[in-house]
Amino acid sequence: MQALFEKAQVFQKNNPGNTPKMTLSSDEWYLRYLSYAGINWRCKKNISEEMLFELVQKTQMPGL
């Protein structure tokens, strides 16, 4: 888990336009990642890991 979280942090650092508005703890990040990865697997969407990293980011939008 830690290596994947660190990889996501590097991705965010290299893509400054995609930085989250709120920071996530590693535990919260991993649970959100597993949720999106599970949906990706179950629906057979072939979403890239980078896109999953973007989806996991938390925003300030109400209702999310």
Following the backbone from N to C, one meets helices and strands in this order, namely HHH
What is the averaged pLDDT score?
Answer: 79
Strand content: under 5%
Described by strand count, sense and barrel closure, the largest sheet is: none
Unreliable segments (pLDDT under 50, ≥5 consecutive)? Answer: none
Question: Helix segment count?
Answer: 3
- Classify the secondary structure makeup into a structural class: mainly alpha
Shape, principal axes of CA atoms: globular
State the helical fraction.
55-70%
N-end to C-end Cα span: 24 Å
CA gyration radius, whole angstroms: 12 Å
Total number of beta strands = 0
Could you walk me through the main structural features you see in this protein, from its secondary elements to its overall organization?
This protein has 64 residues and is mainly α. It is 61% helix and 0% strand. The chain has helices at residues 2-14, 26-43, 49-56. The termini are far apart. The model has no long low-confidence stretch (mean pLDDT 79).
